[in-house]
Amino acid sequence: MIPDLWPARLHHLRRDSPKPEPLARFYGELLGDRVERLPDGNWLVAGRGRRLVVGNGAAASVPYFALQLQDAAHLAAFRRAVKKSEDFSSPLFAEGAFALTDPDGRRIVFGLPRNENAENGPVARLQHFVCATQRLPEMLEFYRGLGMVESDHVLEGKALSAVFLRSDPEHHSFAAFRAPESRPDHHCYETTGWLDIRDWADRMGRLRIPLWWGPGRHGPGNNLFFMIEDPDGHKVEFSAELELMPRDMAHRTWPHEQRTLNLWGSAWMRS
Ligand SMILES: [Fe+2]
């Protein structure tokens, strides 16, 4: 039986670097967020609807991402329904959080937030995480087995080249692209509309951070977007107007071509 993950949202992720403090300060400036040292020596970057843990590790790595479930009953029922979970201590989740390890060796953590301060600043909610993978069929099987629902497939011939999965009505909270190497691909902040994309792009201009891709409109998800690179080359996306899909809506299929990833023009092709 498929575990009942729905509805769950991305709450935070951990983004590692050999130089964690400068990376944390970069994200603090990028987003206008509070940066603080955590008791375990890692860094927290916290803003309105977004939290990032920055730790010491390989450049551009994302060792885990963390989904927030509805309440203690949802978390307990979900844990009973999955196999091979392990207790997991995240500085941002209450007791009872646990993790599973995906076929690429990345952890996905499930939990409930600790009491959190309301944060000020511009709205941009951490909304999805995407990875590139050498094992796309295994990754799809794993994430589907957690109760994520497929929203879109991208096919090259009969071979799957990307898959987008949702854990609530938002088009995807996770996606995976076929690639020659497994690595994190990007994470994304969802804004309140197209004018926010203008304002965030203006902020990038003031910070002298060049846009790396976009603005454009994705086919899968139909969202407006642009991306920038952090100091390790990990991509960060700002998005608006991401499509909503009911739980029982069947997935669609797109061809593996640039237009799929950007209806307005050229695209970042991972394979
Ligand atoms: Fe994205």
Topology of this structure?
Layout: E1 9-17, H1 20-31, E2 34-37, E3 43-47, E4 50-56, E5 61-68, H2 72-81, E6 86-87, E7 98-101, E8 107-111, E9 125-133, H3 136-145, E10 149-156, E11 159-166, E12 174-178, E13 183-190, H4 194-207, E14 213-217, E15 224-229, E16 235-240, E17 252-255, H5 258-261
Parallel strand pairs: 1-4, 5-8, 9-12, 10-17, 13-16
Antiparallel strand pairs: 1-5, 2-3, 3-4, 6-7, 7-8, 9-13, 10-11, 11-12, 14-15, 15-16
The structure holds fe (ii) ion.
Order of helices and strands: EHEEEEHEEEEHEEEEHEEEEH
- The total count of helices amounts to 5
What overall form do the CA principal axes indicate? globular
The biggest sheet, with number of strands, parallel, antiparallel or mixed sense and barrel status, is: 9 strands, mixed
Q: Please bin the fraction of helical residues.
A: 10-25%
**Computed structural class:** alpha/beta
What binds here, in terms of ligands, is: fe (ii) ion
Distance between the termini: 33 Å
Would you identify the regions where 5 or more consecutive residues have pLDDT less than 50? none
Q: Give the mean pLDDT.
A: 96
Strand order of the largest sheet: 14-15-16-13-9-12-11-10-17
Proportion of strand residues: 35-45%
How many strands appear in the DSSP assignment? 17
Oligomer kind: single chain
Spatial extent as radius of gyration = 18 Å
